[in-house]
Amino acid sequence: PPSPLSPLVDLNSLTSLKSAKMGAGGPAQRKVDLFNKFCGLIDQYPCMVLVCADNVNARTMAFIRRDIRAFGATMIMGKNTLIRKAIRAKMEEKPELEILLPECVGNTGFVFCTADDFDKLKEIFAARRVAAAAKPGVAAPLDVIIPAGGTGLDPSQTSFMQALSIATKINRGAVEILQETKLISKGDKVGASQAALLVKLDIKPFSYGLEMLSIFEDGDLYDAAVLQLTEEDVLSGFTAGVGRVTSFALGTSTPTAASFPHVVRNAYKNVAAIALATGYTYDQIAETKALLDDPEALARLATAASTPAAGGETKAAAEKEPEPESESDEEMGFGLFD
């Protein structure tokens, strides 16, 4: 049997095995594979969604990869230097990719997909968000509010609450917060005492997941907030834009498709006003001029227009039931003291 001091495995075989791994599937080869895969996906997919993976654990990333793979999307996470190198290599064929170079910072990932997959990606990213506790030194992504009410903490914790400017009282042997209090403001770094209090209260105020940053489509890069727009938002924005164009065209006497109906209407009003003032008659204004020349006909027209409303009031008055007349003692033939 080998002595206790002798190695159980030959060191030369270990060295050769390590060299084989470095050559076949080591870090260098993995970089080459990632480079080639990224370049191939650029040719395969028409769109890319840039995502931020800050504070997202490996388990969540694995679930997201599996979910998006179900409808054909693929996510690439790699070192920014390698991604930039791959983008520069493809810029000879597609110069529009240059707009992506400044975006390769931090924990940025690329999801390759089609335009029909944007809503699916948004739903998956929202469903895979994970609640997390507030850690000291982390910038708060939102305001942290401590609700009023019982906490279940023992009375010795009141000094801890007072140090954080939280009004409390002792109720039935436990600390109770008197009013809702903002503990952390959005953008502020979480302090050690604040994090400890949230742990004591069993509050996980933050949730982390993939955040959609921007979308690259047809050579254009635009903010992912565009996906939040609804049809009503687009329609209202379009209507407001048409209104501004119409106002500008009317103010500068510039004929446009939007302002043309208003120009025709205003011109007709001017022609009608001149015809009525000068006594000139043409077919389109003959009826209006006849009414203005005959006050009685105009009065009858005004009466006819108001008749339905008056008739409705008369009918309502007729339908109103008369109040019953009260019977008095005198009508009964005797008085109160008879």
Automatic annotation (TrEMBL):
<feature type="compositionally biased region" description="Low complexity">
    <location>
        <begin position="302"/>
        <end position="315"/>
    </location>
</feature>
<dbReference type="Pfam" id="PF00428">
    <property type="entry name" value="Ribosomal_60s"/>
</dbReference>
<dbReference type="GO" id="GO:0002181">
    <property type="term" value="P:cytoplasmic translation"/>
</dbReference>
<keyword id="KW-0689">Ribosomal protein</keyword>
<dbReference type="Pfam" id="PF00466">
    <property type="entry name" value="Ribosomal_L10"/>
</dbReference>
<feature type="region of interest" description="Disordered">
    <location>
        <begin position="302"/>
        <end position="338"/>
    </location>
</feature>
<dbReference type="Pfam" id="PF17777">
    <property type="entry name" value="RL10P_insert"/>
</dbReference>
<dbReference type="GO" id="GO:0000027">
    <property type="term" value="P:ribosomal large subunit assembly"/>
</dbReference>
<protein>
    <recommendedName>
        <fullName>Large ribosomal subunit protein uL10-like insertion domain-containing protein</fullName>
    </recommendedName>
</protein>
<dbReference type="GO" id="GO:0070180">
    <property type="term" value="F:large ribosomal subunit rRNA binding"/>
</dbReference>
<dbReference type="InterPro" id="IPR043141">
    <property type="entry name" value="Ribosomal_uL10-like_sf"/>
</dbReference>
<dbReference type="InterPro" id="IPR040637">
    <property type="entry name" value="Ribosomal_uL10-like_insert"/>
</dbReference>
<dbReference type="GO" id="GO:0003735">
    <property type="term" value="F:structural constituent of ribosome"/>
</dbReference>
<dbReference type="InterPro" id="IPR001790">
    <property type="entry name" value="Ribosomal_uL10"/>
</dbReference>
<dbReference type="InterPro" id="IPR043164">
    <property type="entry name" value="Ribosomal_uL10-like_insert_sf"/>
</dbReference>
<feature type="domain" description="Large ribosomal subunit protein uL10-like insertion">
    <location>
        <begin position="134"/>
        <end position="203"/>
    </location>
</feature>
<dbReference type="InterPro" id="IPR050323">
    <property type="entry name" value="Ribosomal_protein_uL10"/>
</dbReference>
<comment type="similarity">
    <text>Belongs to the universal ribosomal protein uL10 family.</text>
</comment>
<keyword id="KW-0687">Ribonucleoprotein</keyword>
<dbReference type="GO" id="GO:0022625">
    <property type="term" value="C:cytosolic large ribosomal subunit"/>
</dbReference>
<dbReference type="InterPro" id="IPR030670">
    <property type="entry name" value="uL10_eukaryotes"/>
</dbReference>
